[in-house]
C-alpha cells in the first residue's frame, strides 16, 4: 500500500517507517504537526511531540518526499477521554485536516504510519481519524516488548555520537529532552546505543520505560535508511535545564549533508535484515510442537452414540419456532434471536433491514443507547454475504467502542441472518428519546460514550494481534466491576502483519495461532482467566486437534495459587458451523475475567452459593458434564455454567426446573445460549415456553474432550 508517515522527528515514527518498508509498503509522503508559534518547542500536547519541530522541516530535503505540515494551537487537548469522539477544535481534528489534504493531493494513498508503542491515547485518535478518511493504520511497534524493541533500534543505529560521515545506512537518533530520574543534561545529544545501558539500569532500578513511553526522554532523528538524498549533521548543541522541574532540553543546530552514493541496494538489504517478531514466540512454539508431535493426549474419550446422525452439510434449516427474546439478567439485558420476519420471501437487503429495524425498535422501547452493547453474535446463512451485511452493521454500530463480535455462517438458521446482543445496564450512557425513525446511529447523540464501558478496539496493522476486520472491538467490559468480566471477539488464525490467513492445510498451526491471538488479547487487557470458551470449526477433522490444543494449553498454563481450584479445561464447547470468515478452519472466542477472586470487601466465594435446597443447577455441580465458576460483585453474584445434554428429555426437564424455580431475589434471572442442531429437536416445546434462551443452530456440538453431544449450553445466573 502507498502510505504517508506521521513524523514527529522521534525514533518511534522513524523505526515504524522502516518496518512499513520491510513489509512491502510504499512511502510517498511525510506529515507533521508543529506549533503555530514557531519559537515554541514544547506545547505539552497530549497527542503530538513538538520538541525539535524545526529539525523536521529538513526532512523533505533528506527524503526527496513531500512534507505536509499543519499548525497546532497550544492548549487544544480538549477531549482527553481515552475513547475519543469527534470534538470541535481539539488538536486531533488538526490531524484530520492534515490527512484530508494529503488524501486530496494523493488520491491513491491507502495507509498511515504511526509509531505508537503503548499509548492507547495516541493510537485511538489516529485510528479515529483514519477510519473517517478510510485509511489503514500501520503501527508495527504496537505492544512490542520495550527491551527487545530498543535493542533492535540500537542494532540499526550508528554506534557513537559522531556525525555520520561514511554514508552508512543507519538510524541516527539523538536525545534532545530528558525528564526522568537518572537522566540528566549529560545525556543530551547522545545516540541510542550510548544511552541504552543507562536506560536498562534505570528500568531495573526505577521502572523507567526503556523506550521512553512514560515521557522520560525525547529523540530527534538525523539520519535514517529512507533518507535517500542526504542526512543532518550537528553543528551546535545548546543545552538548558529547567530549574523548577529538572527537565533538560537540547536545541540542535544542524546542516543538510548531501549523500554522495546511491544507497538503494543497501536499503533493500536493510529491509530484508530488519528483525521482525515471530508469530509464535517461544511459549507458543513449544505448544505447537506438542500439538503437532504428541499424538493423542490423555483425555477420557467417550463413545457418545447419538439417536440421530448429524445431517449432511447441504441440508438447510427445518422450520423451528425461534422467537426474539428480551431478558434482564442482573445488570445485563440479553436481546436474542432477532431473525428476519420476511425470511420466506425477502431478498438479502430486505432481510437485513428488517433485522436492524427490529433492533432499532427494541432500543427505543427499552430506552437503551447503542453504546451500551458489550457483545454481539452475528450468524449468516452464507459467509459470501458478509460484506453486504457488514455495511448495514457498520452503519448501526458507528460508534467509537462497538461491541465485541463473533461472526460465523450456519446453513441451519431460518433466514439470511440472525442477531443476538448483550447490553450493559450498569451505565451512565446518555439515554434520550429518539423522535426520528430509521437506523442511522451515527449522529452526535450516539457518539456520547458510556463512561463505565471500556474495551480494546485496535484497528491498526501490527505484529501484535489481528486488527479488526469489521466494526467490532476485540474485547469489551464494564470497568466498574472489580472482576472485569470481559467479552472477547472470535479470533481466527490470521498473520497480524499482513492480515492473511495462515496455511489452511495445517489444522494444528491454525488452532494454536488462533488461540494465541485470543490469549494475547486477554493478557493485554489483564483479563486472562477463562469463564467460558467457545471454538467454532468449519470442518470436523479439526475437532480432535482443537481438543488437544486446549488440553495441552491448560496443562502448561501456570496458575497462581487462587486459580488452583479452577479446572478451566471443562469450560470449552466446540461447535461445527458451515463457514468461518476468510475461510478459516477455526475461531476461538469466549468470556474471561481479571480474577476469580476479586477484592476481599466484595466477599467473593468460589464455593457453592447459598441457594435453596431445590436449586435446579446445584444438582449438576461437580458432574463431568458441567463446569461452573461463581463470581460476586458489589450488587450481584454471577454463576457461569458450561454444560451438555444428550437427550431431549434431559434438556426439557432441566429447562422446566429453571423456569419454575423461585430465585431468592426478585431481580434474579438466568440466560442460556444453547448450541444445537435443529434436526435433533423432535418436539417444539423445547422452544415455545422460554424467553431467556439464545438459540444457536449449528451442525454439530462437541465437549472439551472432542465427544459429540446433542446440546451444549452456556448459562449465566445472577442473584
From TrEMBL:
Organism: Saccharomycodes ludwigii
GO biological process: protein histidyl modification to diphthamide
Record-linked PANTHER family: DIPHTHINE--AMMONIA LIGASE, DOMAIN OF UNKNOWN FUNCTION 71 DUF71 -CONTAINING PROTEIN
Molecular function terms from GO: ATP binding; diphthine-ammonia ligase activity
UniProt keyword terms in alphabetical order: ATP-binding, Ligase, Nucleotide-binding
InterPro entries: Diphthami_syn_dom (IPR002761), DPH6/MJ0570 (IPR030662), Rossmann-like_a/b/a_fold (IPR014729), RutC-like_sf (IPR035959), YjgF/YER057c/UK114 (IPR006175)
Name of the protein described by the UniProt record: Diphthine--ammonia ligase
The keyword Oxidoreductase belongs to this UniProt entry's keyword annotation: no
Pfam families: Diphthami_syn_2 (PF01902), Ribonuc_L-PSP (PF01042)
Coiled-coil positions: none
Domain annotation Diphthamide synthase: ranges: 1-251
Gene3D superfamilies in the record: HUPs (3.40.50.620), putative n-type atp pyrophosphatase, domain 2 (3.90.1490.10), RutC-like (3.30.1330.40)
Reaction catalysed by this enzyme: diphthine-[translation elongation factor 2] + NH4(+) + ATP = diphthamide-[translation elongation factor 2] + AMP + diphosphate + H(+)
Entry's EC annotation: 6.3.1.14
